[in-house]
Specification:
Number of strands: 33
Helix content: 10-25%
Number of helices: 15
Strand order of the largest sheet: 13-14-17-20-21-22-23-24
């Protein structure tokens, strides 16, 4: 760090004095170099910036205030020798307070550093956190002189050093990836195999009990719901609720302090790093769910916590100066068209990759980031910068390809290099198994990787992140147990959450002791899971669905930091868990279900068989007219293990067993005739969802044999590779 000799002395009182140097404008944030700390803050429209140093989180005001006199290209910077990691700080930013024109500077408000690597605590809600006078008839046009310092958490200088012990990221290819969406607290808080003092934290995620469970289940990529430091809204606290999911970020570089068991002054950073290291040791990737589309400062009536007070116009999409564009339903939208915002996002992504060693990101409401003016632009600056970045472009990039704005549903429209949550897969499979009218062609597309969405852009089946459920909506158990949501605990008279869930309660609403209802529900769970893990694409499983967790019908538990959301391990359905473990192991063992490239539906050279074929119950191949006229109630699918068409890392052809799968969503049993001899000389039953059975040693059947497929069930037959002529 370059130091300039013309020192300044800043005096806060006769008992304290501190040396300062001009410092450097890069990197942004607080950077400790072993001798002191460089502070750099971007603000284009500020007229003055003050760095405030605090002795403790409980301090009512700063004990040293430093006027930053140096500004280079709108970056205000100063170097303070002698400061060490653990130092608490914040900023006060001066400038015009003219909300009607987009300016909301108010030096009475202490501000969180947007580049803070650690934040010392959480918001303590008070009227002082707002830039205007609460209750004033002029609303946000009024000006508050209350000091917010006692109520806002402080930014923390960190020591970036950490011993990774040479552990490298697993670098699992997409076609071998099995995603597991979970919540740091919810996944670990009730697990009695984890020491009580660390439950609900990053340390709990790194605990051997957690690692052991994930390994036995068979997943190899954990997608963590937001861990960026976030805000829990005031209106939720007033209802004695909280923002449990965390989709309300305010610190894009700081792991949230709520999930720290080791401390609040930077210790959470090392605790997070250790979690990643332990996951990587076990061959498990860590994917972060990130929220770069908005911040926790809300609309024009929201608090002034960071960006709004630093330079409102340089961060947000504004309408007529005073108001905020809202493509997210949260009150504001970050303006990814602006260089300052793009730099913030890219710097954050690179930090989490290079310093925290994460393996990729799932972008919440990603369509918002691609909006140039109002329309979603697939050639936007956001995509351009990511594609040319040698670091970010090499990790997993997963889009939630929609927002609430006009034309925001962009499934299948993201560019090469991106995978997407495939909402059309979810909807199709839910409709299929609940017996709704859906066409065979739709089922076929979704099951084989959604070529209609992705193939035309030179993407692969792995662009499709297949899922039946996600954090937002019913759990798998509730999907087969409720026709209607039960969100009364959220305090909004059951008006929140989606009303169209494509769910079916199997004959009785909510919990049931009817054995027929429960048998059907259990079979439906197995059907959904089996469909998910046999489909082409990347499967995503939501934590607890593998053993039937419930949220009591709540399909929007974003504010429920309690037993509604936490995984209750003592209530796990062990039979379903065993089925899930066997199913995932089966899927991983067979490349037929994890193809890198598309089916061609053409005969394989010299073999005379297609790589995939579709059958009617009478054993004949599906004629063209069936695709667009028949509702998808029952069909057979042949996968040719000799038709995988790609090679391993050594360039050698990949072969697998062949499979014949029968999907029967009809409410009655259907008799099927197995394919003729040219497709397989014998067929062994390996999966039967009606019988709750997964085995490599099931009953043998001859070609053309008749088999009865139970109502609403799946049967999978295998023709062993060693019996095939290569």
């Amino acid at each position: 760090m370059k130091k300039v000799s013309n020192n300044n002395v800043v005096k806060e009182s006769e008992h304290s004095k501190i040396l300062v140097y001009p410092g450097e404008p890069y990197p942004l944030g607080a950077t400790w170099d072993g001798e002191g700390v460089n502070f750099a803050l971007y603000s284009e429209n500020a007229t003055g910036v003050e760095l405030c140093l605090f002795e403790s989180q409980e301090s009512l005001r700063e004990h040293i205030k430093i006027e930053i006199k140096e500004a280079s290209h709108h970056v205000w910077h100063v170097y303070v020798p002698g400061l060490k990691p653990g130092q608490l700080y914040g900023y006060r930013v001066h400038g015009p307070y003219e909300p009607a024109y987009g300016f909301r500077f108010n030096p009475n408000k202490l501000l969180i550093d947007p580049y803070a690597k650690s934040v010392s605590g959480t918001i303590q809600w008070h009227d002082a956190l707002f830039g205007y006078v609460i209750g004033d008839e002029n609303e946000d046009l009024s000006f508050s002189e209350l000091d917010s310092a006692p109520y806002i958490p402080k930014s923390v200088v960190i020591d970036p050093t950490f011993d990774w012990e040479g552990v490298q990221p697993p670098e699992i290819p997409y076609h071998d990836t099995i995603l597991y969406e979970t919540h740091v607290k919810g996944f670990t808080f009730l697990n009695k195999e984890i020491p009580e003092e660390i439950r609900g934290t990053y340390a709990a995620m790194a605990h051997p009990a957690t690692i052991k469970y994930l390994k036995e289940l068979g997943v190899n990529a954990v997608e963590l719901m937001p861990v960026h430091h976030f805000i829990s809204d005031r209106h939720l606290k007033e209802r004695e609720l909280t923002n449990y999911w965390g989709y309300n970020s305010i610190g894009f570089f700081a792991p949230d302090v709520r999930y720290s068991s080791s401390g609040t002054h930077g210790q959470q950073v090392n605790e997070f790093k250790n979690m990643v290291k332990e996951m990587h040791k076990a061959g498990i990737e860590v994917i972060l769910d990130v929220v770069y589309n908005h911040t926790g400062e809300g609309n024009h009536m929201g608090p002034t916590l960071s960006f709004r007070g630093i330079d409102n116009m340089s961060y947000y999409r504004l309408m007529d100066g005073r108001y905020y564009m809202d493509y997210t339903g949260t009150g504001n939208t970050l303006n990814a068209r602006l260089p300052s915002v793009l730099r913030l996002i890219m710097d954050s992504l690179r930090y989490w990759i290079t310093e925290m060693h994460v393996d990729g990101f799932r972008f919440d409401l990603a369509s918002t980031l691609a909006r140039e003016l109002h329309e979603v632009d697939r050639l936007s600056a956001f995509f351009d910068i990511i594609h040319q970045d040698p670091i970010i472009s090499q990790v997993k990039l997963i889009a939630e390809p929609w927002d609430i704005g006009y034309d925001g549903y962009q499934v299948g429209k993201f560019p090469m290099g991106w995978a997407e949550w495939n909402g059309r897969y979810r909807d199709c499979m839910r409709d299929f198994w609940r017996g709704a009218d859906s066409m065979l062609a739709e089922f076929a597309e979704r099951f084989t990787g959604s070529s209609d969405l992705y193939k035309g852009e030179y993407r692969r089946p792995t662009a499709s992140i297949n899922f039946i459920t996600a954090h937002d909506g019913f759990t798998l158990n509730d999907l087969v147990s409720y026709n209607a949501k039960r969100n009364f605990a959220n305090g909004e008279d059951n008006n929140d959450g989606d009303d169209h869930n494509r769910s079916w309660n199997c004959g009785s609403e909510g919990p049931s002791d009817n054995p027929e209802v429960m048998e059907l529900r259990n079979k439906q769970k197995r059907n959904f899971l089996t469909t998910l893990f046999l489909s082409q694409g990347v499967p995503m499983l939501v934590a607890g669905d593998e053993w039937g967790r419930t949220q009591g019908g709540n399909n929007n538990a974003y504010c429920q930091d309690n037993e509604i959301s936490w995984l209750d391990w003592e209530k796990a359905d062990q039979d379903l868990l065993t089925f899930s473990q066997k199913l995932i192991a089966f899927s991983k063992a067979h490349r037929s279900f994890r193809r890198r490239d598309w089916f061609r539906g053409l005969p394989i050279k010299g073999k005379g068989l297609e790589d995939i074929a579709w059958f009617l119950p009478d054993g004949s191949e599906m004629p063209e007219e069936n695709w667009n006229h028949d509702y998808a109630k029952s069909l057979g699918i042949f996968l040719n293990g000799k038709g995988i068409r790609h090679v391993n890392k050594k360039g050698e052809p990949i072969y697998d067993d062949s499979f014949y799968m029968i999907f029967n969503a009809h409410f009655e049993p259907v008799e099927y005739k197995l394919p003729p001899k040219k497709y397989g000389t014998e067929w062994r039953k390996v999966i039967d969802t009606s019988a709750n059975c997964i085995t490599e040693d099931g009953q043998l059947f001859e070609p053309d044999a008749l088999v009865t497929v139970d109502s609403r069930s799946i049967i999978v037959f295998k023709h062993a590779l060693e019996q095939q002529k290569i």
